[in-house]
## 1
Amino acid sequence: MRIDILTLFPKMFDGFINESIIKRAIENKLITINIIDFREFSSLKHKQVDDTPYGGGAGMVLMCEPIVKAIESVKDDDSLVILTTPQGKSYNQSVALDLKNYKHLIIVCGHYEGYDERIRNFVDLELSIGDYVLTGGEIPAMVICDSVIRLIDGVIKKDSYMEDSFTDNLLDYPTYTKPADFRGLKVPEVLINGNHKLIEEYRKEEQRKRTEERRPDLLGDKDGKD
Ligand code: ADE
């Protein structure tokens, strides 16, 4: 998969692409990530990318031209163009599983008070990572990339993500490691005695209990409950 990220703040992505699993996925050629500064596509003096809103109001608005030109510079027939915005469709694991199937994602990071409404004509999908407002779309872009990249074959072990929270609309089961007793807090006996069938049953039941207690809304969605 190739991912092009269009942003005014390319340096924000330095840590993201140069550490841990994402770095390894790039080195292993499982993904390519290009960070594109769309300021470079401004034809105005001083590379201006925003202006005051028509009709008045606070703040500056991102202009169409640099963003649309930047999209056009990388777009081809396989591309899906995504805009990060609090007004977008709610992002979740099932959207991540869908995005995983694309060959090429272009993610446009919004900024400041907003962007010219006409930019929407040049994107395929608008995504929000939650009902709160961030200062810009860079963190949402990283959230989307990270959650999609870890699903790509070869990036992490497949069983790791098949058991993730939200797969089958259930939260993940609890896990433990050594020691078996930490300050009187004991690892459940069933996990220690090595009976795989019992362990599987225990984990399924814990998933159900957890989801019921913490996220009953997920069970309402029905496909997942066993
Ligand atoms: N930009 C600012 N806030 C956002 C959010 N919650 N989701 C996606 N993009 C955003």
Note: The chain is about 35% helix and 20% strand.
## 2
Amino acid sequence: MSVRPVRIYGDPVLRERAREVTSVDDTLRQLVADMRETMAAYGGVGLAANQVGVAQRLLVVDVPVEEHARARHALINPVVRRRAGSVSGEEGCLSVPGLWEDVTRAERLVVTGLDEEGREVELDVEGYLARAIQHEMDHLDGVLFVDRLSPLKRQFLRRSLDALARGELPEGHRPPAERTGPGGQL
Ligand code: ZN
């Protein structure tokens, strides 16, 4: 397993619509393992394959759901079957470091896909897990959370985003090995 570098805002792969996975094989399982390791190393709770430079429809999440429980899933070719409600909440993204903004998402959803063994899975999720899956599914369509903000808000963030696109990481941004603190980005 290995930690892969997370692609940052401005990298064209983050704007690609990822392709369907056609074969759940050992190569894909290696990618899943690397994505989990990368997510953990960066202190993230979700990661889409685009974020490590692979435009395939695959995401992983590792979200605390109760005090001592976490929801850990790999979802291949995910499809939303039902969505309900609407809720605003704060999000950060490993590919857009330094920015945390409120985003409105469905409150609850049913999503289907395959796990890394190729088995069909159906998840009925709510709360932050539902938010994380929607955020990662956006990545698979080349959409970033900042795209979902109001035009005014985006204009306000323009300089920060342009700086990221030029390769200037925000003050205090550390490589994964030096990170401490809660993390929680997607
Ligand atoms: Zn993200």
Note: The pocket of zinc ion is lined by residues 93-95, 135, 139, 186 (CB under 6 Å).
